[in-house]
Specification:
This protein has 382 residues and is of the alpha/beta class. The protein has helices at 17-28, 45-52, 69-78, 113-133, 150-163, 180-184, 203-209, 234-247, 261-269, 281-297, 319-326, 338-347, 351-354, 359-373, and strands at residues 8-13, 33-39, 56-60, 85-89, 105-108, 137-142, 168-172, 211-212, 218-220, 250-254, 272-277, 304-309, 332-334. Bound molecules: adenosine-5'-triphosphate and magnesium ion (MG). Adenosine-5'-triphosphate binds next to helix 5 and helix 12.
C-alpha cells in the first residue's frame, strides 16, 4: 500500500458500517488523508496500529464490542506508539480532549469532510511538533584508531549525561566487534539490534531489545557474534536511531574505527562527533586524514569536537604540536587513570559512578555537561 509523500495515514476503529461508509466517502473525495484500514473489533486496534503504523487513529467512543472506545484509547496509549488518537463521539456522550489520557482531539458527529480532515491534520501536526520539541542529540564517539578509549569514554559519558538528568541511550555501533557486551557482562542471549523487526519498528519493539544497565542507561547492543554484523543494514540502523531519538534526550554511539556504510550513516546523523585523539605519533596523520574526509563530505567544522584521552601521558607529541596540526586547541581532555579504568571496566562499572571525584570522572562529567548545555535536554518525552 503506497502513500504519497505528505499524505496522512489514518486508521479508523469503527463498528458501525454506515459511519465507516460515510467516512470512506468523505476521504475518497480528497487526497490529504489516506484511510489505511478500518478495524471493527476494538480489541484488534492496538495490534493493527502497531502493524500499520498510521499517523493518526480515529476511535469511535461508542464502540459496542467487548473492547469499548475508552479501553481502545487506553490500549493505544499503553502500546507506546506515539500515534495521536482522535475520539469520535456524539453530543449526548461528550468527551473532553485529554492528551495525557491519550485523547489528542475530539470529533463530534455530525461532521463534514472539511472538519474530519482538519481535525486529523491538526492532530498529526501537533504530534510532529511535540517530537521536534523533544529533539534529542546524537553523539558519536569516534576515532580512526583502535584502542584509544572509544568504548570506555562512550560508556562513561553516557552514564554521566544520564546522571545530569537526561534520558540517555547508548548504542554499540561497533557491530562486528562490539565491546559493550563483554564490558557490561551481558548474558550471551541478551537481545541485540538484530532482534528488532525489519519492517516498521515501534517503540515497544525497541523497549523489548534494549539492555537496561544498572548504571541508569539503556543500551542497544551489537549482535552477539561477529558474522552476524552483516545482517544489519544501514536502514535497520537508521530506523533504530531515529526511534531512539524520539525516546531519549541523548543518544551516544560507541563507534568502530573503520568507516563503512553504517558508521558513515551514524556520523552523518550525528549532531556532534566526539573524536578521540591521543598524544602518539600516528594520531596526527590519522586525525588529519579524517578531518580531510569530513571536510570533503561537507561536515561543518563545529560538528567535530576533539577529546584528548590520557591527556597527561605524552607519547612523544606535545599539546602544541597537536593543536597546530588540528588547526585548533582540542575542546576536551581526559586524564589517564589506568588503575581506576581497569578496575571499573573489569567490574563492568562506569568509573564516573565508581569514583565520581576522581579527576578522570570529573573530566568526563565536564564533557557531559558541555554536551547537555548544547540542547534543551530536559525536553525528553515521557
Ligand atoms: N583515560 C584512560 N586512562 C587509562 N586507561 C584508559 C583510558 N582510556 C582508555 N583506557 C584503556 O585503554 C584500553 C582501550 O580502551 P577502549 O576499549 O575503550 O578503546 P576503544 O577505542 O574502544 O578500542 P577498540 O578500537 O578496540 O574498540 C582499555 O584497556 C582501557 O582500560
Ligand atoms: Mg571499543
Amino acid at each position: 500500500m503506497s502513500t504519497a509523500v505528505g499524505q496522512i495515514r489514518l486508521l479508523l476503529v469503527e463498528d458501525v458500517p454506515q459511519v465507516s461508509q460515510y467516512m470512506r466517502g468523505l476521504l475518497n473525495a480528497q487526497s490529504q488523508v489516506k484511510l489505511v484500514d478500518i478495524v471493527s473489533d476494538g480489541g484488534r486496534a492496538a495490534t493493527q496500529a502497531r502493524q500499520l503504523r498510521p499517523d493518526v487513529v480515529i476511535v469511535d467512543w461508542l464502540l459496542q464490542g467487548r473492547t469499548k472506545g475508552d479501553k481502545v484509547v487506553a490500549q493505544l496509549r499503553e502500546a507506546g506508539l506515539g500515534i495521536p488518537v482522535v475520539v469520535l463521539t456524539v453530543p449526548q456522550s461528550p468527551v473532553a480532549r485529554n492528551p495525557a489520557a491519550g485523547i489528542h482531539a475530539v470529533l463530534g458527529m455530525p461532521f463534514s469532510g472539511f472538519e474530519l480532515v482538519s481535525v486529523v491534520a491538526a492532530a498529526h501536526q501537533a504530534a510532529l511538533a511535540a517530537t521536534e520539541a523533544a529533539q534529542s542529540r546524537l553523539v558519536t564517539v569516534y576515532a580512526p584508531k583502535g584502542g584509544v578509549g572509544k568504548t570506555t569514554v562512550a560508556f562513561n559519558l553516557a552514564v554521566a549525561v544520564a546522571q545530569g538528568g537526561a534520558r540517555t541511550a547508548l548504542v554499540d555501533g561497533s557491530l562486528q566487534f562490539g565491546d559493550l557486551r563483554s564490558l557490561l557482562r551481558v548474558p550471551a542471549d541478551a537481545p541485540s539490534i538484530l532482534d528488532l523487526p525489519t519492517d516498521r519498528i515501534g517503540e515497544s519493539d525497541l523497549q523489548d531489545v534494549l539492555w537496561r544497565d544498572p548504571s541508569g542507561i539503556d543500551i542497544l547492543l551489537a549482535p552477539p557474534r561477529v558474522e552476524m554484523a552483516d545482517m544489519v543494514s544501514v536502514r535497520d540502523m537508521e530506523k533504530a536511531i531515529s526511534l531512539l531519538r524520539r525516546l531519549y534526550a541523548v543518544v551516544v554511539v560507541d563507534m568502530p574505527a573503520a568507516l563503512g556504510d553504517i558508521p558513515l550513516a551514524l556520523l552523518d546523523a550525528a549532531d556532534t562527533i566526539l573524536e578521540i585523539v591521543t598524544y602518539d605519533s600516528t594520531t596526527i596523520r590519522n586525525t588529519l586524514a579524517v578531518a580531510e574526509a569530513f571536510r570533503a563530505i561537507g561536515y561543518p567544522a563545529a560538528k567535530v569536537q576533539y577529546v584528548v584521552n590520557r591527556a597527561d601521558s605524552s607519547g612523544g607529541i606535545d599539546a602544541e604540536d597537536l593543536a597546530r596540526a588540528l588547526g585548533r586547541v582540542p575542546e576536551h581532555t581526559i586524564v589517564s587513570d589506568g588503575r581506576l579504568v581497569v578496575q571499573a571496566n573489569n567490574e563492568g562499572l562506569p568509573f564516573v559512578l565508581a569514583n565520581p571525584d576522581a579527576p578522570i570522572s570529573r573530566d568526563v562529567a565536564r564533557i557531559a555537561a558541555h554536551l547537555a548545555g548544547a540542547a534543551p535536554l530536559a525536553a525528553a518525552r515521557r
